[in-house]
Write a structure and sequence with these properties.
Blueprint (H helix, E strand, L loop, with lengths): L28 H16 L8 E2 L8 H8 L6 E2 L8 H14 L6 E2 L12 E2 L12 E2 L7
Parallel strand pairs: 1-2, 1-3
Antiparallel strand pairs: 4-5
Length: 143
């Protein structure tokens, strides 16, 4: 099924922020995502008003907040995929489908968090997950 989209949708811009460790980036998660989104728009040669689709990752933002903050006045497609660590890849595929099917012309897929600049989350119930305890950390990065 994905073969149907390969010649009709593509990534046209990428933006990222600096990587960081403690004490963090000094920006909120929204600030990180906006900074990377602006860089992606510049990379693509697009204006924010051309973005008509936004797919934020779960718990990292809302499409309406990002649209209002960037000045996207024609939002007609928004979705959030709840697929855990597969959300970024799933979002790219869904964005390609949205563009191919005419639901949007340009879909922004922002992501960014200060996870690595704070304390790690330690899951203590080792019997509840395969492989024992897991420490979850992430780096400041938006795509």
């Amino acid at each position: 099924m994905f073969k149907e989209f390969k010649d009709r949708a593509c990534i046209v811009g990428i933006g990222e922020t600096s990587f960081c460790r403690k004490p963090g980036s000094g920006l909120s998660e929204l600030g990180i995502q906006l900074k990377a989104s602006i860089a992606a728009l510049e990379d693509a040669g697009l204006a924010a008003k051309q973005i008509d689709g936004i797919m934020p990752f779960p718990t990292l933002g809302k499409a309406e907040t990002l649209a209002a903050s960037l000045g996207c006045s024609n939002l007609r497609f928004a979705a959030t995929l709840h697929m855990g660590g597969a959300s970024p890849v799933g979002s790219l595929r869904t964005a390609a489908m949205a563009v191919t099917m005419g639901a949007a012309d340009y879909v922004l897929v922002p992501g960014g968090w200060n996870g690595y600049s704070g304390a790690a989350l330690l899951m203590r119930r080792a019997d509840s997950i395969p492989g024992g305890s897991i420490t979850a950390t992430s780096i400041c990065r938006s795509a």
